[in-house]
Amino acid sequence: MNVFLRLFSLLFISLSFAQTTRKYSNEFMNIGVDAAALGMSNAVVSHTGDVNSGYWNPAGLLKMEDNQLALMHSSYFANIANYNYIGFAMPLDDRSAVGISLIRFGVDDILDTTQLIDEQGNINYDRIKLFSTADYSLTFSYARNLKVQGISYGVNAKVIRRVIGDFASSWGFGLDAGIQIDFGNEWKFGAMARDITTTFNAWRFDEDRLEDIQNAIEGQNQTVPERTELTIPKLQIGVSKRMVFHYDYALLASFDLNVRFTETNDIISTSFASINPALGFQFGYIDMVFLRLGVGNFQNELPLDNSENMTFQPNFGVGFKYKGIQIDYAFTDIGDQSAALYSNIFSLKLDFSIFR
Question: How far is C-alpha 244 from the chain's CA centre?
């Protein structure tokens, strides 16, 4: 418990730097994994309990009974950007578990027109090349049960790699810490502190390539971007309850609060912190067929007429599980109620018990 408290205290130490760092950094890490979780609007921090817990709350890895593998794919911005995820986790013994996961969010085949005009001032389309911009995250997770029954904790060590063609690249490192409490009566509590050390990214620029584009448009792109980037801490806390009806039917209700320690457009926002609630439901039949609904991403938008509108993002999902194979689908932003674009998300989870 002392180890967990030390890690969690780093979150509050880091808050003293929150006002001097960017509001948004490494945002691809906030998208989420697993169509089942996304169908519930990410309100899963208290009850997550499979291989995907390495992302949502590593303490949940302890609920696995066997090795598990997960895959997910989704597309964003009219299929321009692709988001892919793979995760693997395994129990070590009855008190601990480990996991590893890899995320890639990228845009490929971007036209590089920096050499479109040759030295004689002629346009030469043969000089156009393609490049990719991609963000990667490799996460190592460890979870352990405390001696106090019903309480578990987990930690993540993340390596971040970001690449913009041959123009720029960066390496970053950060830590997460999570806890889950099972009250023993189907009520569960969870908390996940992300980037508790203010995840640090160090950028390297190709000076020659930067010079090519720096003066491409007169009066623009004249300064070199910052070479360091800090991701401020975030806190997600949640509570959930599972109810069983007539043995075959189960309803899982979950409520989360997502806290950023900076002022944003979230529905609750102050100079110290901004809070965004999320509510998710999962209705299951004989633990085989699932229907999911969720609502989250509540934002205060300011149109040009200075009026204030509240937007939100409703999500929908379905799932099917048979023996050790689970397939899930999520459709995000139903009815286009928020500024976010809708996405179709598919994920697969394989429990290795199917091979035994």
Answer: 30
| Predicted TM-score (pTM) of this structure | 0.84
Distance CA 157, CA 144 (A): 15
User: What is the rounded CA–CA span in Å between residue 154 and residue 65?
Assistant: 17
Q: Torsions phi, psi of 228, nearest 5? A: -125, 150
pLDDT of amino acid 17: 45
Q: Is the pLDDT of residue 162 over 60?
A: yes
Alpha carbon separation from 101 to 8, 70, 158, 163 (Å, rounded): 22, 9, 10, 19
> What confidence score (pLDDT) does residue 15 get?
43
Distances, alpha carbon 23 to alpha carbons 18, 136, 220, in Å:
8, 20, 24
- Six token digits for residue 84: 């892919």
List, in order, residues 6 or more apart from 46 with CB less than 8 Å away.
57, 180, 188, 189, 190, 238, 239, 240, 254, 256
Mean pLDDT score of the chain, rounded to an integer? 84
What is the Cα gyration radius of the chain? 22
Which of helix, strand or coil describes residue 160? strand
The helix (H) or strand (E) run that includes residue 54 is helix 53-56
Q: Look at residues 146, 115, 144, 145 and name the one whose alpha carbon lies nearest to residue 130.
A: 115
Which residue, 201, 127, 128, is CA-closest to 168?
201
Closest CA relative to residue 103, chosen from 128, 81, 122, 121: 81
CA distances from 80 to 77, 83, 106, 110 (A): 5, 10, 9, 10
8 Å CB contact between 235 and 191: yes
Report how far residue 44's alpha carbon sits from residue 5's, in angstroms, rounded to the nearest whole number: 22
Return the pLDDT at 16: 42
Contacts for 270-279 with beta carbons within 8 Å, 24 or more apart? 278/41, 278/42, 278/43, 279/41, 279/43, 279/253, 279/254, 279/255
